[in-house]
Design goal:
With about 280 residues, the protein is mainly alpha-helical. The protein has a three-stranded parallel sheet, covered by helices on one side. Keywords: DNA-binding, Transcription, Transcription regulation. This is Chromate resistance protein ChrB domain-containing protein.
């Protein structure tokens, strides 16, 4: 079958052809024409018009054309149903419907801006929605953070955020557990930032910063991590590790960065500090 819609697609007019070809009509021919030519060309070509006011395959109430295709053709694939609110949110500017909606809009708008040819844009859109489908089917519960320490820290923060209410002056369990986890993992390359955690958890960084400092010596997350790095570095200075190795093991970008922060905290460079350590 031939399917026809308005030119210059961005969201629905790329997502719908993907859905049509993958689940409804594998041999579908997708045609893009100017708005005022869609109906005349549909009649002349015997094509099905979609994503256009006044036709069957279009928006209904708060749902977009992608939603209607799923319902009309009884598409039951669970991954497609995960994709639906993402497409709807991006297409209707309701980014609150799915956390991925704003990202889909940004990528789709960029694709349309970079590619002036609608058929080539459709080819790239098919790749985009194949990728989104794979994520929805296989990867939606996989976190980007891979370090064990990162995953543990995220789990602890999630436990805290789920409590929903303040616990007064009593130190909450999340803070105790977080302190232990940081201490246990301080010999790894700690590269987390509070901003990164906030983005992952979708919580404003100032909120996490304020709550963190209440239970960690009135220090910000970054200052607390740096403090523990310096304490670990002091322990390692008594070993045979080089200063470059110590910088890496305590999470600094390089030896000069390590030296600068170490001197700021201790008043001595790492090499001078090592010279004054008692001989074993």
């Amino acid at each position: 079958m031939k399917w026809i819609t308005r030119e210059r697609p961005k969201i629905d007019r790329l997502a719908c052809p993907w859905l049509i070809r993958r689940f409804i009509d594998p041999e579908a021919e997708i045609i893009y024409v100017p708005f005022d030519q869609v109906i005349p060309q549909a009649e002349a070509l015997g094509a099905i018009p979609f994503d256009l006011p006044g036709v069957e395959y279009t928006h209904h109430e708060d749902k977009c054309t992608f939603d209607y295709l799923i319902e009309k053709h009884n598409v039951t694939d669970p991954a497609v149903h995960v994709m639906a609110p993402i497409v709807r949110g991006a297409d209707t500017d309701r980014h609150d419907l799915a956390t991925q909606a704003s990202g889909l809009w940004a990528i789709s708008a960029g694709l349309a801006y970079n590619e002036p040819d609608d058929q080539r844009l459709l080819e790239k859109g098919m790749l985009l929605y194949d990728a989104l489908y794979s994520w929805a089917k296989h990867l939606q519960h996989v976190s980007h953070t891979q370090q064990p320490f990162e995953n543990l820290l995220l789990e602890v923060f999630k436990k805290f955020l789920s409590q929903q209410k303040a616990e007064g002056k009593k130190v909450p369990e999340w803070a105790k557990e977080l302190r232990d986890l940081i201490q246990d993992q301080i010999d790894t390359n700690l590269s987390l930032s509070l901003k990164g955690l906030s983005e992952t958890l979708q919580v404003h960084p100032s909120y996490l910063s304020r709550e963190f400092s209440k239970y960690f010596d009135n220090l910000t997350f970054g200052d607390y991590i740096r403090k523990l790095r310096i304490e670990k570095a002091i322990q390692l200075l008594a070993s045979s590790h080089s200063l470059t190795e110590i910088a890496y093991l305590t999470g600094f970008s390089d030896q000069s960065h390590f030296t600068r922060i170490f001197k700021k905290h201790t008043g001595k460079s790492p090499s001078d500090f090592r010279k004054n350590l008692p001989k074993k």
